[in-house]
Amino acid sequence: MTSSLVPPSPVTPTTVRLYAAAIASAKIGTGFFFLINTWLIIELTHQPSSAALTLVMTILPSLLLSPLIGLAVDRGRPARLAYRAEWLRWLVLILYGGLYGAGLAGAWTGYAVSFLVALGNEIQVLAWRAALVRAAPAEQMLRLNALTVVGGQAGQILGAAASGLVLAAIGPVPTIVLTATAYLLSALFGRLVAGRLSGQDPATAARRDLRQHLRDLAAGLGHIRERPEIGFFYGLMLANLTVIFGINAMLAPFVQEELHLGAAAFGQIDAGYAAGAITGGLVVARLAARFGRRPILISGFLLMATSLAAFAHSHGFVAAIIAYAGLGISFQTNVLALSLAQQATDPAYQGRVNASFNTLNGLAGLVIYGIVALSAGHHLYRTLYLGQAAIMLAMVPAIILAGRGGRVSRLLVPGTDRARAQAQAAGSL
């Protein structure tokens, strides 16, 4: 009798397909935008180093604004925020196309566009994560997070692969408009998803003053202190992201200076990562259900360390693309850690908790980019890759020790082992 009173989840197969379309469309836009923005900013400044500055601009929203975005997500309607962020990106790029076509765009126009498009991405990511956690049961989140990676990487492959050809065929302004159209499609799909999730939104909150906003932010930090397992899983995600920052910054010079290959090989190796990430995203939920979350996390970090070491020692295209595909597969440790962090976090605090760690991620990105910039011209890329491999290898004993008891263990050991894990945790408290 009581089971009939439980409302069905609004995350139906149709909702999932619409969500996947929204994510894929946004990532197609991102794939286009990455190439056209870095290419056009070099044309505007005539300085190759300006492309690096655009990467820094993409980090600033998470570094400076994540706490405020997270608070807005927790206090508002996250699904609506998500698709409105895509409206923002569409509008910014339409204006950019107009300014560029009129010859009025300068270097700082490009930098501002990088910042605003990254701001839209920050809002979209935080908002969709919170919206799905509110609407979906905990056991469905791993599949939804994996779907986000699969749809996102598929869209990014398509965008990155087509962007160069499209730019050469139709020119900068039509390409910018086409990029904006991808974000517009994402907004339309997102609007449909938001309509299906609208019943999960809280009632409109009363207007809050500055003091209340500060108390709300402090409450999010207090929630993290009360549940240290949140910090553990976000720490695993941070370890993953340091690898992402590093390989994004080092791939182009590594391919050119160490492998002595051209732009075509660069694009193919980068696509190898995306193909690996898609493959891993399709199987991670099944593997975690069959073998357990802890073994998959451990295997993923071992694969990541091995792939980084193999890439550091590669001297040709084949070895490099295989190692890079392995890195893509191992990225599923980030998906699994995110799902466990979401499960450990109260739904009312999802936005603020996620945003707090995004700020740390932004700081880590600045540090990594700084290290890579300082090492430019010194042929230290292989050493840096090996250093990252050693750090990822150190994550393995950390996971093993954390899984022996306590709150982390209760999340790492699902199914039939949960009762034993809870008994161990009770004895350790």
Automatic annotation (TrEMBL):
List the GO terms this entry assigns under cellular component, sorted alphabetically. Answer: plasma membrane
InterPro entries in the record: MFS, MFS_dom, MFS_trans_sf
Domain Major facilitator superfamily (MFS) profile as annotated: residue spans: 228-429
Q: Where in the cell is it found?
A: Cell membrane
**One GO molecular function term?**
transmembrane transporter activity
Question: What SUPFAM superfamilies is this protein classified in?
Answer: MFS general substrate transporter
Q: What topology in the membrane does the UniProt record assign? A: Multi-pass membrane protein
Q: Which domain of life is it from?
A: Bacteria
Q: Which PROSITE patterns match?
A: MFS
Record field: transmembrane: 20-40, 52-73, 93-119, 176-194, 231-251, 271-289, 296-315, 321-341, 353-372, 384-402
Q: Which UniProt keywords apply?
A: Cell membrane, Membrane, Transmembrane, Transmembrane helix
Where mainly located?
Answer: membrane
The keyword Cell membrane appears for this protein: yes
Q: What is this protein called?
A: MFS transporter
Please name the source species.
Aliidongia dinghuensis
Q: What is the lineage of its organism?
A: Bacteria, Pseudomonadati, Pseudomonadota, Alphaproteobacteria, Rhodospirillales
